[in-house]
Amino acid sequence: MPFLSRDWRSPGDQWVRTSEGWERLKLWRIKIFERMNENILARLLRLAVSEYDDTWHKHQPHIHYIKGISKERKVMTSLSEAFVHLDMTGAVRDIRRFNYVKKLMFLLLTRNFRYLSGTSQKNIINILEEMTNQVLKTDTNVPAMKALLNCAVNTLTDGQYSHIGSECLWNKHRATVSKTVAKLEKYQLKQRHCDGKPTLDDLPEDCLRCIFRKLSNHSDIIHTGQTNQTNHTVSSHMLLWKQLCFFHFTDQQLLVFLPQELEINEDRVNWRYIYRRCYKYTSSFGRQTSFHLRFGMKDIFADHLAICCHCDTLFWQSIGHPCFSDSELKSRPLSPEAFLDLFVL
Hints:
extended, two-stranded antiparallel sheet, F-box-like_dom_sf, four-stranded antiparallel sheet, 16 helices, nucleus, alpha+beta
């Protein structure tokens, strides 16, 4: 009987048919690349970039949320699955979603980190690493990232003997966070080169007032006001602090201190003092004085998670999700606290 299969001693070459006849595939590819010019290569690059952009815009991170178990389904949606399907690691690369993920990580580290599963703990540590890399790359949110890493260090230290899971995994988390902290401590602010473009000092006071009104964090206003005399004058304007008070605090919260201020000074209210009293308070114990939040600041997120009212799908509000319902899209926004309440932690 003849041997019909491929001979192991000679696997042979692949051939391709061209207008000139049959040629070996290896030689044909080499000829094709040799004949390419810059125009053809540029066209191929444009096509590749356009296809990549199309696939990126079509990608919508989402996950179907399963509320409870039934006879047909015995599995609930876990936190680790939500992190993977919602692309939390990639969300930190978007400046709009960075603050939301940061708040989410802070709540997990201060509340339930030691009681989470090993997979969820590894996801959180990976997100912290990616956040640090993004901060070093963009030179933004450096103080907030340092505070978050310090919170992670304290959580890992306090839960060393009361955590769930293996001790080896916990020590690995501590080593990873320590390495991340050391990487962030080496960060040095890069000075802007003299490129001839206008800076903040070149702007008139009217433009500076508009910029200061867009800042929601009082620390940014205070630190910017310490740079020069003009910024200090703009940052000390009472109208700016009045708008900040009405933005972060409710009327009931402001009425706690506003009548006292009106009794002292009826003509002019010190809104900066009212903001400080509403934001925090001091407590003394012996010679030690500590600061505590009274009302805190309002959380502001440019993008947030939401849950669809038709299909119970968790998704990012700015990206959307593929909903099976033909009716008008209706969703409920989720704060970081509301998102964590959906899961059994």
